[in-house]
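User: Can you recover a sequence for this backbone? Please restate the input before giving your answer.

Assistant: Of course. Working from this structure:
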C-alpha cells in the first residue's frame, strides 16, 4: 500500500515536471519566433549595380534603399548605411534585390585602380585635405576643377651702365642712341608684360588650370619615419617611429594636364572646386592678380 502511494506521488511529480518542461519549451519557441520576426533595417539594391561602381555614385544615383526585413532573413554582414564606405567600390555585380553586405564592397587599392582610368587618360594623385577639397564633400566619381595659384618672387632687372661703357672697336658712340637701342631690345624681350623693365616683378596669379577632372579615388595611407630623439640625460640618442597619415585624391587627366598639375604642385598651390555631375562648360578666364582682383 505504501509502495503504491509513493509511486502515485512520484507520478504526480513527474507529470508536473513534464508540464513545466513543455511550457518552457513552448515559451522558448515563441520567443525565438518573435525574435526572428523582429524587423531590421538593411540596405537593398534597387537595380543591378555593376562591378567596381564607386559607392559615392551608388548613393548619388539611389541604387540602394533602406528596407525593413525580418531578422531571420538577414544575410551575415548586412549593412544599414554606406556613409563610412564612400571611398569603396562594388567588389562584383550586385543584383537587384540583394542585400548590401561588407563583402560586396571593397577598396579600389585592393583590386587595383587601373580599372577606372579612362582610355587615353592618366591617373595622378595630389595631396588632399578638407580645406582644398571642399570640406571633404568630394566623392569618387565626382568632377572637379583644379585651380592653381603661383606666387612669383620679386626680382629686379638690372640696366647696364651705357654712359661710361666704351665701344669695343674704340670708336665713339652716342650714349643716348645706345640707351634707346637697349631699351627697345628689353621691351621686345618682355612683350606683354604689365610692369616696366626696371620695376619689381611680382605677378602672382590664380587661374583655373584643369576643367571637369574626374575623381578616381580618395584615400589615405600611413607612412612611418624613424626620428632621432635625444635622451633626457643628454647622453646618446634613441629613435622612434613616427606615423604620418597622408591623404590624397586621384584624378583622371590628359598627359598635358598631368604635366601642368605636377608643375603646379612643385612650385605653386592647388585648390579643388566641385562642379555638377555632368561637368561645367569651359570658358576662358583672365586669372586673378593684384592688378585685377577687384574687377
Amino acid at each position: 500500500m505504501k509502495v503504491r502511494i509513493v509511486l502515485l506521488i512520484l507520478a504526480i511529480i513527474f507529470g508536473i515536471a513534464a508540464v513545466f518542461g513543455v511550457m518552457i519549451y513552448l515559451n522558448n519557441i515563441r520567443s525565438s519566433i518573435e525574435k526572428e520576426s523582429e524587423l531590421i533595417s538593411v540596405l537593398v539594391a534597387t537595380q543591378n549595380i555593376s562591378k567596381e561602381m564607386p559607392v559615392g555614385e551608388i548613393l548619388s544615383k539611389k541604387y540602394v534603399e533602406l528596407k525593413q526585413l525580418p531578422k531571420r532573413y538577414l544575410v551575415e554582414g548586412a549593412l544599414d548605411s554606406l556613409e563610412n564606405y564612400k571611398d569603396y567600390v562594388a567588389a562584383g555585380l550586385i543584383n537587384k534585390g540583394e542585400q548590401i553586405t561588407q563583402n560586396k564592397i571593397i577598396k579600389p587599392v585592393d583590386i587595383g585602380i587601373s580599372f577606372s582610368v579612362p582610355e587615353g587618360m592618366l591617373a595622378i594623385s595630389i595631396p588632399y585635405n578638407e580645406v582644398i577639397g571642399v570640406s571633404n564633400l568630394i566623392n569618387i566619381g565626382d568632377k572637379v576643377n583644379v585651380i592653381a595659384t603661383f606666387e612669383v618672387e620679386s626680382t629686379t632687372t638690372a640696366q647696364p651702365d651705357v654712359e661710361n661703357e666704351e665701344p669695343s672697336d674704340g670708336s665713339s658712340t652716342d650714349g643716348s642712341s645706345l640707351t634707346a637701342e637697349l631699351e627697345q631690345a628689353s621691351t621686345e624681350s618682355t612683350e606683354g608684360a604689365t610692369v616696366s623693365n626696371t620695376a619689381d616683378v611680382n605677378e602672382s596669379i590664380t587661374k583655373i588650370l584643369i576643367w571637369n577632372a574626374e575623381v578616381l579615388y580618395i584615400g589615405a595611407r600611413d607612412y612611418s619615419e624613424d626620428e632621432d630623439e635625444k635622451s633626457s640625460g643628454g647622453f646618446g640618442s634613441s629613435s622612434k617611429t613616427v606615423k604620418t597619415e597622408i591623404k590624397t585624391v586621384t584624378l583622371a587627366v590628359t598627359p598635358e594636364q598631368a604635366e601642368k598639375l605636377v608643375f603646379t604642385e612643385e612650385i605653386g598651390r592647388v585648390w579643388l572646386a566641385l562642379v555638377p555631375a555632368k561637368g561645367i562648360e569651359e570658358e576662358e578666364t583672365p586669372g586673378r592678380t593684384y592688378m585685377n582682383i577687384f574687377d
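That completes the design. The CA atoms of residues 31 and 252 lie 55 Å apart.
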